[in-house]
Design a protein that fits this description.
single chain, 160 residues, two-stranded antiparallel sheet, 3 helices, 21% helix
């Protein structure tokens, strides 16, 4: 019993120390890595895959629930974190994630966060670790096995 109390005590002290580290250095401008969930992300997160077999090979086909299908070809606003697909400082095509990819060394341990592929209308976006918000038309990729994401935002513009 003493071991559990000691472990609990150490946990509380550690949590306080970690919080103090973040709030102690506000000038370091540490990004707030809170999830960017909203109703659009909730709908995107409901996409599932139907698994079929073709010979020895498993084929994963996206299945879009009604709540997500209702957003197809609609203009949506989506906050999130830029995930580059190519190297460089600016990007016209990239993934947008509900969580930052560089969040922690344990990312991916609870599954892959929802992501969509963004195609900017005109301007390229400079890479940032800060959250961004884009507005554009949501479309479903009819052939996601050809290298693009299942859900895409096309003609996107950066909202300020």
């Amino acid at each position: 019993m003493k071991k559990y109390i000691a472990l609990l005590f150490i946990s509380f002290i550690s949590l306080g120390y970690l919080q103090a580290q973040v709030t102690q250095f506000p000038e370091m401008n540490v990004p707030d890595h809170t999830p960017m969930m909203n109703s659009t992300w909730d709908a995107i997160d409901k996409m599932m895959y139907k698994v079929t077999n073709e010979g020895n090979k498993k084929v994963y086909t996206p299945s879009y629930p009604a709540v997500l299908k209702a957003l197809e070809n609609k203009v949506v606003e989506l906050p999130g974190y830029l995930v580059p697909l190519n190297s460089g400082r600016t990007h016209t095509t990239f993934m947008l994630s509900v969580l930052p990819v560089m969040q922690c060394m344990f990312c991916g341990s609870n599954g892959i966060p929802p992501m969509v592929e963004i195609f900017m209308k005109n301007d390229a976006i400079k890479f940032t670790e800060e959250p961004i918000k884009v507005k554009g038309k949501m479309v479903f990729n009819p052939e996601p096995l050809k290298g693009n994401a299942e859900i895409q935002i096309v003609d996107a513009v950066l909202l300020k």
